[in-house]
Give the backbone structure.
Amino acid sequence: MNPESINIFYRVKALLNISGVGIIRLLSLVEKFGTLEALFNSTKKELISVGKISEKLADKIDSVISNFPLYKKESEKELEKLNDLGGKIITYWDNNYPQQLKNIYYPPLILYLAGKYTAQDSQSVSIVGTRRLTDYGKTVANKFASELAKQGITIISGMARGIDSVAHKAALKHGGRTIAVIGSGLDIIYPPENKNLFNSIIENGAVISEFPLGTKPDAQNFPKRNRIIAGLSLGTLVIETKENGGAMQTAKFAFDQNKEVFAVPGNITSEKSNGTNLLIQRNEAKLILSTEDILLELQLKLKPTIGVNIPKQDLDLTLFEEKIYNALDTIPKQVDTIASQTSLSIPETLINLLSLEFKGIVQQLPGKMFKKA
């Protein structure tokens, strides 16, 4: 951790201890003063005039600033414990703070992290669902997590019992990266039986929390945790959940964050599928039957190993796919040209081209150029 990040951590921790200063208020104050440092060096008069806050709140902020060494001492103790755990902190103002998370309405200003968050993890899908899964849910979660992980997509979940644990384990089993967002401090593993999973995730991804060390996994923490799961991901896949399950909260956060929401349909006689089926029925989630459905919707490319060297005659091409494939050559063509030659609309042409990419027989080049692979 660099000194600048540590200094930001100390100041943010101190300011968030003030009643009346939450994430949105603090971000607003920093924006008005220009920098966190300028806010911290402000006077009471400036807080009222520039920050446009009440005299009472200005007094509180001024008091914290004046007594900052005391607050800093407490934060230093926490940082020492975090170092002993092999953890680190990332603040909202750090360059390595996840950009997708920064764009949500209520971004955590401090992330406690064990393991490593990489640029690759921006290509991620969250998989969430019930803790009390059926055999169907287990099979489906394992299938989607495994197939996505094989394509280099990071799997994000909450390390809870049930669907979450299955998704993490499937990603790890197939050499993929996975991130767990937890509702407790990094020093409290919940559920306790997931200790080995916790350690495996750290070795092949990261465990993330916005909660200080020592925070217990209280019920009120999990909705906050769920907004981060959705925020880190390009899209959220819901597999088996009751109508009022926690996974429905994650889906709502993803929906509100303008992220893609996917749901796997389930047995209409099972209450564990009520949530996913309702999401689909209300058009709040896209019905998903295969991994390709997700990748196509998110416009994520499959690894080139998929479908390579598969003879065309062994592929099950649709009429439109075959028409487009026949119009292609080893010399790249622009999508407008392909659409014109096949008498298809550009959106139809793009959808089928992406489908052919999934099958490994078409390659996309910059500028919407395509050719036979």
About this structure: The domain at 115-298 is CATH 3.40.50.450 (Rossmann fold). The chain has three domains: 3-84, 115-298, 312-372.
